[in-house]
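Encode chain A's predicted structure.
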Amino acid sequence: QMQLQESGPGLVKPSQTLSLTCSVSGGSISANYVYWSWIRQSPGKGLEWIGYIAWTGSTYYGPPLNGRASISRDTTKNQYTLQLNSVTPEDTAVYYCAREAMGALDHWGKGTLVTVSS
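Encoded structure for chain A:
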Protein backbone atom coordinates (compact mmCIF):
# COMPACT_ATOMS: atom_id res chain seq x y z
CA GLN A 1 0.00 0.00 0.00
CA MET A 2 1.46 3.33 -1.03
CA GLN A 3 1.98 5.95 1.63
CA LEU A 4 3.29 9.51 1.46
CA GLN A 5 4.54 11.37 4.52
CA GLU A 6 5.49 15.03 4.70
CA SER A 7 8.16 16.22 7.12
CA GLY A 8 9.82 19.51 7.91
CA PRO A 9 9.74 22.45 10.31
CA GLY A 10 6.38 23.76 11.37
CA LEU A 11 7.61 27.32 11.82
CA VAL A 12 9.66 29.40 9.41
CA LYS A 13 10.66 33.06 9.73
CA PRO A 14 9.80 35.56 7.01
CA SER A 15 12.38 35.86 4.21
CA GLN A 16 13.80 32.42 5.01
CA THR A 17 13.52 29.23 2.95
CA LEU A 18 10.84 26.65 3.65
CA SER A 19 12.02 23.11 3.09
CA LEU A 20 9.75 20.05 3.19
CA THR A 21 10.40 16.42 2.35
CA CYS A 22 7.94 13.81 1.17
CA SER A 23 8.90 10.22 1.97
CA VAL A 24 7.23 7.66 -0.25
CA SER A 25 6.73 4.00 0.62
CA GLY A 26 5.01 1.23 -1.29
CA GLY A 27 6.19 2.42 -4.68
CA SER A 28 9.13 4.01 -6.45
CA ILE A 29 9.29 7.70 -7.29
CA SER A 30 11.05 6.63 -10.48
CA ALA A 31 8.08 4.59 -11.68
CA ASN A 32 7.16 5.47 -15.26
CA TYR A 33 4.53 8.08 -16.06
CA VAL A 34 4.08 9.17 -12.46
CA TYR A 35 4.23 12.77 -11.23
CA TRP A 36 5.01 13.78 -7.65
CA SER A 37 3.33 16.99 -6.63
CA TRP A 38 3.29 19.55 -3.87
CA ILE A 39 -0.01 21.25 -3.07
CA ARG A 40 -0.95 23.66 -0.31
CA GLN A 41 -4.02 25.08 1.33
CA SER A 42 -3.85 28.41 3.10
CA PRO A 43 -6.32 29.21 5.89
CA GLY A 44 -9.73 29.97 4.42
CA LYS A 45 -8.61 29.29 0.85
CA GLY A 46 -8.79 26.48 -1.63
CA LEU A 47 -6.11 24.07 -2.69
CA GLU A 48 -3.21 25.55 -4.64
CA TRP A 49 -0.99 23.36 -6.79
CA ILE A 50 2.68 24.28 -6.38
CA GLY A 51 4.42 21.99 -8.86
CA TYR A 52 5.65 18.52 -9.57
CA ILE A 53 8.69 16.44 -10.32
CA ALA A 54 8.13 13.76 -12.94
CA TRP A 55 9.45 10.22 -13.06
CA THR A 56 12.10 11.53 -15.46
CA GLY A 57 13.30 14.14 -12.96
CA SER A 58 11.90 17.05 -14.91
CA THR A 59 9.99 19.69 -12.97
CA TYR A 60 7.10 22.06 -13.61
CA TYR A 61 5.80 24.82 -11.39
CA GLY A 62 2.56 26.73 -11.11
CA PRO A 63 2.71 30.46 -11.90
CA PRO A 64 1.45 31.88 -8.58
CA LEU A 65 4.71 31.37 -6.72
CA ASN A 66 6.69 33.55 -9.15
CA GLY A 67 9.67 31.22 -9.40
CA ARG A 68 10.22 30.86 -5.66
CA ALA A 69 9.61 27.10 -5.59
CA SER A 70 12.08 24.34 -6.35
CA ILE A 71 11.38 20.59 -6.28
CA SER A 72 14.11 17.97 -6.22
CA ARG A 73 14.36 14.27 -5.45
CA ASP A 74 16.60 11.64 -3.91
CA THR A 75 15.84 8.37 -5.63
CA THR A 76 18.10 6.44 -3.27
CA LYS A 77 15.88 7.48 -0.35
CA ASN A 78 12.65 7.49 -2.39
CA GLN A 79 12.00 11.05 -1.27
CA TYR A 80 11.32 14.35 -2.93
CA THR A 81 11.71 17.82 -1.52
CA LEU A 82 10.09 21.23 -1.82
CA GLN A 83 12.05 24.41 -1.22
CA LEU A 84 10.20 27.72 -1.18
CA ASN A 85 12.38 30.82 -1.00
CA SER A 86 11.70 34.24 0.51
CA VAL A 87 8.62 33.16 2.41
CA THR A 88 6.08 35.62 3.78
CA PRO A 89 3.14 35.11 6.15
CA GLU A 90 1.01 34.52 3.03
CA ASP A 91 2.89 31.23 2.59
CA THR A 92 1.39 29.91 5.83
CA ALA A 93 -0.54 26.81 4.81
CA VAL A 94 -0.99 23.09 5.14
CA TYR A 95 1.39 21.56 2.63
CA TYR A 96 0.58 18.23 1.00
CA CYS A 97 2.57 15.89 -1.19
CA ALA A 98 0.62 13.79 -3.63
CA ARG A 99 1.08 11.32 -6.45
CA GLU A 100 -0.47 11.84 -9.86
CA ALA A 101 -0.93 8.86 -12.11
CA MET A 102 -3.32 8.33 -15.04
CA GLY A 103 -4.46 11.94 -14.71
CA ALA A 104 -5.55 11.70 -11.08
CA LEU A 105 -4.06 12.67 -7.75
CA ASP A 106 -4.59 9.25 -6.25
CA HIS A 107 -2.38 9.19 -3.18
CA TRP A 108 -1.91 12.02 -0.71
CA GLY A 109 0.08 12.62 2.42
CA LYS A 110 -1.78 13.76 5.51
CA GLY A 111 -0.38 17.26 5.20
CA THR A 112 1.83 19.36 7.42
CA LEU A 113 1.13 22.84 8.72
CA VAL A 114 3.82 25.41 8.09
CA THR A 115 3.48 28.78 9.76
CA VAL A 116 5.53 31.75 8.60
CA SER A 117 6.01 34.11 11.47
CA SER A 118 8.74 36.02 13.23
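The first strand starts at residue 3 and ends at 7.
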